[in-house]
């Protein structure tokens, strides 16, 4: 149809209607000028002139031109249909993209919220807990070291006390042995007893509770007459009493040492148990820290991925809107062009059915 139109227009170029002819009114001339601005309108008038000048019937011409107008309106309806279909596709695509963008924005918000309010506080909390565990381990080892040093010092003190007690007991036993074998002690024997008492006093100088016994015994041995059997018995009783006190004291410090050893061993077991528990907790905490670091890395990767997806979707939405805007511009210009051609065709059809047009054609034929 378009090729036929172009061919006819080329043929009719030489037979164009003279809009300046005196037969036309000013109103007709304006209408003709408007019609001639349209390709279809100009074609119809020229075609009508050719048709009538060759003996064609006006009713046939009206029928053919009406068909042409119908074709234009049918094509325009097709343009409307295609644009409506494109609009439906556009609306569905925009709806889909906006929903996906909304979903991505929600995912991105959740990812940022999880990172900021869960993972980072968890990382800081795990780090503080690990630091506390390490401090607990250091304190545990310090406590063990201090307890071990104290136990060694206490044991050395115990051994020194045992040696002192044993020395004192030996000196008492020697005095008792000496006193039990003499009836009238000589000055040398008395001096020996006094020497042993001095030895006992030196051995027990750190133990105030025994000093009174030793002091009394020294005074007795200095003032007493060993020839007096009664005084001798009193001295022997005093030595025995002192020996009992020393033996009881030795038994007590030995028992105290045994209890201290038991307590120390229990403390060592407890501290080592706590140390092992702290070590296990460190292993668990390090695993939690590693898992947290992995989750942070994964979440940051997810945020980057979601940002990229969101940028892609926004780009697709913008491209779709731009494409639809271009299609709308094309549609509007196409519809305007079709409406212009249809209006011009209808005006031409109306004009050619006026008697003045037929008179004009006849005048042109006579002039020829």
Automatic annotation (TrEMBL):
Residues 58-150, 296-323 form a coiled coil. Keywords: Coiled coil, Signal. Residues 1-16 form the signal peptide. The keyword Signal applies. This is Uncharacterized protein. It comes from Paramecium primaurelia.
């Amino acid at each position: 149809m378009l090729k036929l139109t172009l061919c006819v227009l080329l043929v009719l170029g030489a037979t164009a209607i003279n809009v300046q002819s005196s037969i036309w009114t000013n109103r007709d001339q304006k209408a003709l000028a408007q019609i001639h601005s349209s390709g279809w309108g100009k074609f119809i008038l020229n075609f009508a002139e050719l048709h009538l000048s060759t003996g064609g019937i006006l009713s046939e011409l009206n029928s053919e031109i009406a068909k042409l107008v119908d074709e234009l309106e049918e094509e325009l309806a097709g343009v409307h249909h295609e644009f409506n279909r494109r609009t439906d596709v556009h609306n569905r695509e925009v709806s889909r993209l906006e929903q996906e963008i909304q979903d991505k924005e929600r995912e991105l918000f959740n990812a940022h919220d999880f990172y900021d309010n869960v993972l980072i506080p968890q990382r800081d909390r795990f780090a503080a807990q690990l630091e506390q565990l390490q401090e607990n381990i250091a304190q545990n080892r310090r406590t063990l070291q201090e307890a071990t040093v104290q136990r060694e010092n206490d044991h050395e003190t115990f051994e020194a006390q045992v040696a002192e007690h044993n020395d004192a007991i030996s000196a008492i036993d020697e005095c008792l042995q000496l006193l039990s074998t003499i009836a009238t002690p000589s000055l040398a024997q008395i001096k020996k007893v006094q020497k042993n008492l001095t030895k006992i006093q030196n051995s027990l100088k750190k133990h105030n509770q025994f000093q009174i016994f030793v002091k009394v015994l020294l005074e007795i041995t200095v003032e007493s007459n060993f020839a007096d059997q009664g005084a001798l018995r009193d001295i022997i009783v005093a030595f025995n009493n002192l020996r009992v006190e020393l033996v009881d004291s030795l038994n007590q410090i030995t028992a105290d040492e045994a209890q201290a050893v038991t307590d120390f061993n229990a403390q060592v077991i407890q501290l080592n148990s706590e140390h092992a528990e702290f070590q296990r907790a460190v292993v668990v905490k390090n695993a939690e820290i590693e898992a947290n670091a992995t989750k942070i890395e994964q979440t940051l990767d997810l945020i980057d991925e979601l940002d990229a997806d969101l940028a892609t979707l926004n780009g697709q939405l913008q491209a779709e809107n731009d494409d639809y805007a271009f299609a709308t511009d094309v549609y509007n210009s196409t519809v305007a062009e079709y409406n212009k051609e249809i209006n011009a065709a209808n005006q031409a059809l109306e004009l050619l059915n006026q008697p003045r047009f037929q008179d004009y054609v006849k005048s042109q034929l006579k002039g020829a």
